[in-house]
């Protein structure tokens, strides 16, 4: 039946074409002959258009998916400030069970009711600076207990074969603890009589200069962009920054406790670690059983 219809259509077209005798009909025939190939070209154009539409739709879908993922991630971080990606250089294992927290800073400069410059403090604040006391020294000494950590197993994955090996443990330390050590070194220079310090020369001067510049780099690296408002002090007829700002901070106490739980004193109770290396140059001689403890004081440059 399909063949009959096709033959009928072909015969009808030839019959209609044979009676085209006028110029107008001839023009029509020429027009038909000119557009004869159109269906085939149209099909090719349609297929090409369809492919372009599919490709553009797929590309749009992919881009939309990526943008949606980024948007959802951004919203998630905005709604939950504690949910942040690791920095590539972080010792991630130290942060696994910790969350960022909001901290209201204290210790800022301000003017009292009679216009005198003072350092503000909050009730219950621990005093890290000022005239030295045994309690103040105890704060700084406690931080020093976490200066060197000894890692093994999965905790050592990111430092393995990148630092020295000591009695089966890889030695490292969180940089924030070293920065605190440097601040303490600088703090003590304000009170040479109390700490019986001689003028810094030679290695001691180099140590202090290193500490000052190291803290400078740390501050610039972290670049806290919390806005600091300005306030007017009628008592002194001056304006100045209001340092009573709230910052989103890492849990320093948590990081310190994590470090102390892995210092040489804690590892000594556990015994020799299970790490090893084929490179003898990475092995530090000695053992925990023979050591009184590792700290910055045992570094080659006098830390």
Automatic annotation (TrEMBL):
GO terms for biological process: mycotoxin biosynthetic process. It comes from the Eukaryota. Keywords: Membrane, Transmembrane, Transmembrane helix. Pfam families: UstYa. The chain crosses the membrane at residues 52-72. Pathway: Mycotoxin biosynthesis. InterPro entries: UstYa-like. Belongs to the ustYa family. This is Uncharacterized protein.
């Amino acid at each position: 039946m399909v063949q009959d219809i096709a033959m009928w259509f072909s015969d009808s077209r030839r019959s209609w074409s044979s009676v085209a005798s006028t110029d107008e009909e001839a023009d029509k025939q020429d027009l038909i002959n000119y557009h004869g190939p159109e269906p085939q070209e149209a099909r090719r154009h349609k297929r090409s258009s369809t492919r372009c539409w599919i490709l553009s739709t797929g590309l749009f879908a992919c881009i939309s998916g990526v943008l949606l993922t980024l948007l959802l991630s951004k919203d998630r971080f905005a709604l939950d400030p504690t949910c942040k990606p690791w920095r590539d250089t972080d010792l991630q294992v130290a942060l696994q069970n910790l969350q960022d927290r909001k901290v209201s800073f204290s210790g800022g400069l301000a003017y009292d009711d009679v216009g005198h410059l003072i350092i503000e403090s909050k009730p219950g604040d621990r005093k890290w600076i000022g005239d030295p006391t045994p309690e103040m020294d105890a704060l700084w000494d406690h931080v020093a207990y976490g200066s060197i950590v000894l890692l093994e197993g999965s905790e050592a994955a990111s430092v393995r074969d990148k630092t020295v090996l000591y009695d089966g443990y890889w030695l490292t330390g969180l940089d924030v603890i070293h920065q605190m050590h440097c601040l303490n070194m600088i703090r003590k220079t304000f009170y040479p009589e109390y700490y019986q310090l001689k003028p810094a020369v030679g290695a001691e001067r180099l140590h202090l200069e290193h500490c000052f510049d190291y803290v400078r780099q740390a501050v610039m690296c972290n670049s806290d962009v919390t806005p600091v408002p300005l306030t007017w002090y009628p008592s002194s007829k001056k304006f100045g920054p209001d340092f009573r700002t709230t910052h989103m901070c890492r849990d320093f106490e948590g990081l310190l406790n994590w470090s102390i739980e892995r210092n040489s004193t804690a590892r000594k109770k556990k015994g020799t670690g299970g790490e090893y290396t084929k490179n003898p140059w990475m092995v530090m001689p000695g053992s925990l059983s023979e050591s009184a403890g590792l700290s910055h004081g045992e570094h080659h440059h006098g830390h």
